[in-house]
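Tokens as discussed.
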């Protein structure tokens, strides 16, 4: 009964608001941060910026004619950029998919871009343009901000960047396809881009360290004495300025660079992935204990600095989920143990269990 559920939700939100009459927003910054810190590892500096942003948004004292927040996430692949947005959506809306993802690749297809940037009405396909924007997810509600993610920003064409710039300035997007207006005043806008990460890749990958010479060659003498972190930052900033106009960069509240994942961070991510796997197993009346040497195997096979945590997830599937799935065919339920035998992961009933 959706109506009753809506009513209950509205009442709950009303009660929450009474607890904190200074804000129309019902999320609690501390709760959101708890969720973020327990799902995103090794990116503490990014989370710190998000915490500051949440304090400001919660206080509801920002410029009412602009979006609530505009951030650009930079950094290599598989290091938590999208996952951070999902974690925010989960903690604010209770669902990690409760945000509107706009793929700049799709948007670069002519008819979508036309719908966004002002093709004449009747332009072939211009009507479909609106379908990539989900108004409800973008606009949020009185008590919750909407969230939008523009992925792979470097693929956006110049007119699309101009249209976005306008959104940052006015908080409104008017689609040419009709009279449709999308309101971004109540929206947290995130954008992601991989620009600069090839340089970072060259920098960290020992097999291509040789390329560093070339990299330094291309870089300016001022770069030569820089420490690793500041050099990476500098290279990214330069590429950012080469890729986007300064007035665009100027309107972004935070440009945040995600770091490569280090081995210790992979350990934490593995532990959190195992926790999630156990959550799924619990529904089928299983519990899995994973030996330390299995964890080490997963990390050594799954640690690929160039591909971030995605390599770890693939390894988890191949080396752990598969033997678990096969064991489940023989063991009807209960506690399982993953151990290492002759370099292979073996899943058996946990000792002391039937
Ligand atoms: N820092 C991190 N903390 C926790 N989990 C992570 C982290 N980085 C990556 N992961 C895990 O790896 C998966 C891939 O990460 P994510 O989708 O965030 O990559 P991305 O940075 O958006 O990369 P791309 O640029 O390729 O889109 C996530 O689903 C998540 O489970
Ligand atoms: Mg991503």
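Sequence:
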């Amino acid at each position: 009964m959706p109506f009753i559920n809506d009513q209950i939700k509205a009442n709950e939100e009303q009660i929450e608001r009474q607890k904190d009459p200074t804000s129309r927003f019902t999320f609690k910054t501390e709760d959101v941060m708890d969720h973020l810190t327990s799902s995103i590892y090794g990116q503490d500096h990014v989370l710190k910026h998000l915490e500051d942003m949440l304090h400001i948004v919660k206080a509801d004292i920002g410029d009412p004619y602009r979006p609530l927040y505009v951030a650009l996430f930079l950094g290599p692949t598989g290091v938590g950029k999208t996952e951070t947005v999902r974690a925010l959506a989960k903690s604010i809306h209770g669902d990690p998919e409760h945000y509107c993802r706009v793929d700049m690749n799709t948007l670069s297809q002519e008819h979508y871009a036309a719908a966004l940037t002002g093709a004449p009405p009747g332009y072939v396909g211009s009507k479909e343009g609106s379908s990539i924007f989900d108004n409800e997810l973008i606009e949020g509600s009185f008590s919750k901000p909407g969230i939008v993610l523009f992925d792979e920003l470097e693929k956006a064409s110049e007119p699309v960047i101009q249209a976005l710039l306008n959104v940052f300035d006015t908080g409104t997007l008017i689609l040419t396809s009709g009279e449709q207006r999308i309101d971004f005043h109540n929206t947290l806008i995130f954008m992601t881009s991989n620009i600069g990460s090839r340089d970072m890749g060259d920098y960290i990958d020992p097999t291509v360290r040789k390329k560093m010479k070339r990299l330094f060659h291309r870089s300016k003498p001022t770069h030569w004495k820089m420490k690793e972190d500041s050099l990476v930052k500098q290279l990214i900033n330069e590429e950012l300025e080469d890729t986007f106009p300064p007035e665009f960069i100027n309107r972004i509240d935070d440009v945040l660079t995600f770091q490569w994942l280090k081995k210790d961070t992979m350990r934490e991510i593995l532990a959190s992935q195992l926790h999630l796997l156990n959550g799924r197993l619990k529904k089928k009346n299983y519990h899995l204990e994973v030996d330390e040497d299995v964890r080490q195997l997963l990390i050594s096979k799954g640690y690929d600095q160039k591909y971030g945590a995605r390599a770890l997830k693939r390894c988890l599937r191949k080396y752990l989920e598969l033997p678990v799935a096969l064991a489940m065919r023989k063991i009807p339920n209960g506690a399982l143990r993953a151990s290492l035998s002759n370099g292979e992961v073996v899943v058996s009933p946990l000792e002391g269990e039937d």
